[in-house]
Amino acid sequence: MPSLQLALPNGVDPASRWRLTARAHESFLRSDPSGDDEVRPVVLESWRRSAALHVDPDRRDSPMTLVDDALAEARATHPLRHAMPVVRRLLVDDAADAGVLVIVGDARGRILWAEGDDDLRRRAERMHLQAGADWCEDAMGTNAIGTALAVGDTVQVFGSEHFARTVQPWSCTAAPIRDPRTGHIIGVLDITGGASVVTPQSAFLVRSAVAAVEAELRLLGGALTATPGSRLEVLGRPRGLLVHLGRNLELSLRHTELLLLLADQPDGLPASELAWQLYEHDAAEVTVRAEMSRLRKAVPDLLSPAGQYRLRTQLRTDAMDVADRLTRGDHRGAVELYRGDLLPRSAAPGVVALRYRLHGWLRNVLLQSGDGEALRRYAMSPSGRDDAQIWRACLDGLAPGSPQRAEAAAVLDGLDGELGHTG
After folding, report:
1. Considering only CA atoms, which of 318, 317, 320, 340 is closest in space to residue 328?
2. Where is the OmpR/PhoB-type domain (predicted)?
3. Cα separation values, 416 from 383, 385, 411, 422, Å
4. Where are the domains of the chain?
5. Which of 22, 148, 348, 364 is 20 to 30 Å from 387 by CA-CA measure?
């Protein structure tokens, strides 16, 4: 885990830091880089993303994306509902005395719960820092909730470090919450208030609370139910089919490759690594960034905008389903789900490696297990019908009187003849 960049290290004067950063912020908005050296890297990179996303620095409030029944449903179906007693016990019960708000949001930056000091909550509602509001970077620019989700780590944002001027009287510390089973980000925990919430002690407090939440989720195990995730179909397909938010989206091959590689790496990949895994020959990182920008426009709530690209929510693939069946020893189930090679038209090195890994795993397991029915089903599939070694194992596994033995022998003779003719 990268070292935490503290907003107010011990000994730093808050008033001086606020003025210094405020001047740098105004210079940045004028496209003047003279103050960039005075800004923490995590904040400066977020400002750049916010500007690229055309966030209005004079925006007065965040968009309300969950209201009434939609908010109630989001709360009732989100796995973090199980951990709210822990959050309240560790943070909310003392929030009023401390003069802070405690906020829990989902992986898209939408606030689900905002509890704590009543007076502070009323003031926060003027800019829609409340349940149902969207605080991802796309909506409000640099802020602890959205930026923590973007970079996948604990973030502190002090006063004038916020991109939107209306938020600059506030400070906040936030950290992403991960599903302990998958490692995917499922939400965010934030404390908001004055300068006291961005001290080193506040960072340790939030991180400790997140660890307690994740431990609670781990204890729940199978009882943990999350909102339906997204799904990507890649087996036997020239390009992917993405099922996302109730919609079926036919993706380009390149966008399918990007999502597949990120689904295989829950902690994310930098642009340089994606470039290496996507292209047979050298490609500039700017090419990857351009593709990611186009993909984010198609599915803006699925991908983090940070340089370390990662998925904001769990993305399940049909290739993962096959791997799960193989892990459990369900060979017939794996064959049934294996509808063909993974993105057979892709030449991306990272995808080719995934394709060979899954196909080789399935094939070797079948040859070693000697499961006659699983072998026969695979032999009849497009992936196995020209595989002489599979047909030979299938023939060896069939009983002498089996009517399917003659078929297997005939196919094997044909394949042996083709190989002999070719030779």
Report:
1. 320
2. 246-311
3. 17, 13, 9, 10
4. 14-221, 236-316, 318-420
5. 348
The confidence score (pLDDT) of residue 165 equals: 96
Residue 225, pLDDT score: 44
- Give the whole-angstrom CA distance, residue 136 versus residue 142: 8
Quick one: average pLDDT of 61-79? 87
Note the pLDDT tens digit of each residue in 144-188.
999 999 888 999 999 999 999 999 999 999 999 998 887 888 899
Q: Is the pLDDT of residue 256 over 90?
A: yes
CATH of domain 14-221: 3.30.450.40
Least confident of 31-45, 165-179, 322-336, 383-397: 383-397
In the predicted structure, residue 420 carries a pLDDT above the cut 60 = no
3-state secondary structure string, the chain?
CCCCCCCCCCCCCHHHHHHHHHHHHHHHHCCCHHHHHHCCHHHHHHHHHHHHCCCCCCCCCCCECCCCHHHHHHHHHCHHHHHHHHHHHHHHHHHHHHCCEEEEEECCCEEEEEEECHHHHHHHHCCCCCCCEECCHHHHCCCHHHHHHHHCCCEEEEHHHCCCHHHCCCEEEEEEEECCCCCCEEEEEEEEECHHHHCHHHHHHHHHHHHHHHHHHHHHHHHCCCCCCEEEECECCCCCEEEECCEEEECCHHHHHHHHHHHCCCCCEEHHHHHHHHCCCCCCHHHHHHHHHHHHHHCCCCECCCCEECECCCEEEHHHHHHHHHHCCCHHHHHHHCCCCECCCCCCHHHHHHHHHHHHHHHHHHHHHCCHHHHHHHHCCCCCCCCHHHHHHHHHHCCCCCHHHHHHHHHHHHHHHHHHHHC
Distance CA 219, CA 147 (A): 28
Is residue 222 pLDDT above 60, yes or no?
A: no
Q: Is the pLDDT of residue 56 over 90?
A: yes
Query: What's the pLDDT score for residue 421?
Result: 43
